Amino acid sequence: MLYNAYEMQRSVLAGASAFADFSAGLLQNPLYPFAYFGGSNVLGSALEVFAHASAPRGKPTFGLDTTTVDGSEVAVTEEIVLRKPFGQLKHFVREGVTSGPKLLIVAPMSGHYATLLRGTVERMLQVADVYVTDWRDAKQVPLTDGAFDLDDYVDYLIEFLEHIGPGTHMLAVCQPSVPCYAAACVMSADKNPARPSTLTMMGGPIDTREAPTAVNTLATERPHSWFENNVIATIPANYPGAGRRVYPGFLQLAGFMTMNLGNHMMSHYELYKHLVEGDGESADATKNFYEEYRSVCDMTAEFYLQTIDVVFQDHALPKGTMLHRGRIVDPAAITDIGILAIEGERDDISGLGQTKAALDIATSLPAEHKRYYMAEGVGHYGIFNGSKWRTKIAPVVEEWMAAHGG
Q1: Calpha distance 129→54 (Å, rounded)
Q2: Residues 133, 13: one domain?
Q3: Residues 192, 269: contact at Cβ < 8 Å?
Q4: Whole domain around residue 264: which residue ranges?
Q5: Mind listing the pLDDT tens digit for each residue in 26-69?
Q6: In total, how many domains does the chain have?
Q7: Residue 19 and residue 24: Cα distance in Å, rounded?
Q8: How many other C-beta atoms lie within 10 A of the C-beta of residue 28?
Q9: What pTM was estimated for this model as a whole?
Q10: Cβ atoms 202, 355 nearer than 8 A
Q11: pLDDT at position 60, please?
Q12: Closest CA relative to residue 360, chosen from 225, 248, 201, 242
């Protein structure tokens, strides 16, 4: 019922968006006589903001065709090197470049596509041979492909690392920090030669008891049954995944938008002012951000509910009670993986100390294999995108990889 209601609303807004976009273009067209009447530019700008906010969106593209390596521009092509039902391993091939460490960037499975990390990938392409986990929208996966939960997520990461081969570095952004850490534990316990040389976690919920945020509070103040009964929906018949139970991406987006509603309203007001003033560059920057931010996908119900239980309510990893396929996930099994924990001073998603906890629970790991970095003045999104990521944080990741295996 919930999903059907959303689909109906989306259809109505899609039509309204198309009409508003057409009207805005007409009012702002210098060949249109009424464009010179008072208020036409103001009305056209308002319609353009509405059209952009209500337009339907699909999966974005990375669009990274070139990069700069050692001062020279080189072509970049994308290759899918391993396909799985719920995700694929994407490789960014730098033409003629064979140097640089292998790096697996693990994108969040939290309602957005892997392209949310476009800035992360773009920066690391300059120094590394980059792979990324390209997760699929659950509504596009037929029921015949089975289920996908947190255990499956860990299995995917292990298989991806084995495919890339020994000596690979792994970088987790936010949500995947826990499954990445679990994969490192399992692979270390098994003496798997493909275990990562380093594991960098940025703004990850390793121990959400530390400096809990609004996101953590929401996940802990209600029982498991509330989430199952109130935020889980069934995919309607017009999608390949019809009948699959999911946590819809549109609910995740609504939650994040509501949490920072004032900031988002101001952003759209600023967009409106830029359009009225004819500041196309500033307007485009805001539009590009929201194009990505509003492109959402669904998560399987079993993955979402298990994550709520294991990560946010039971705190299983830091307590030493997390299981993977019935086995204890033991942080003490990690003895030779360089662990780098990065946090943003102003992170309102993963509070200060939540990612740093990964260093404390790795009790068998020598001190020289641990490092903590707190990015001053940086919020959650700024940890992996933007100027501070490019100039302050990425160099720390580079140095860490170079010091532990290349």
Answers
A1: 37
A2: no
A3: no
A4: 2-56+249-293
A5: 445 444 444 444 444 444 444 443 344 444 556 788 999 999 99
A6: 2
A7: 9
A8: 18
A9: 0.81
A10: yes
A11: 83
A12: 201
DSSP 311: I
Cα–Cα distance measured from residue 38 to residue 19, given in angstroms and rounded to the nearest whole number: 21
Spacing of C-alpha 252 from chain mean position: 12
What residue type is 167 in one-letter code? G
Q: Has residue 304 been placed in a domain?
A: yes
pLDDT, tens only, 294-330: 677 889 999 999 999 999 999 999 999 999 999 999 9
Name the residue among 98, 146, 124 with its Cα closest to residue 384: 124
First-to-last alpha carbon distance for the chain, in angstroms, is 52
Task: Write out the two tokens for 11.
Answer: 């259809």
Dihedral through CA 266, CA 270, CA 275, CA 281, nearest 10?
-130
Pairing verdict, β 169-173 and 87-94: unpaired
At which of 265, 293, 321 does a domain end? Answer: 293
Indicate left, alpha or beta for 191 from its phi (over 0: left) and psi (-120 to 50: alpha).
left
Task: Report the alpha-carbon distance of residue 206 to residue 317 in Å, rounded.
Answer: 7
Question: What confidence score (pLDDT) does residue 371 get?
Answer: 98
The whole-angstrom separation of Cα 183 and Cα 156 is 9
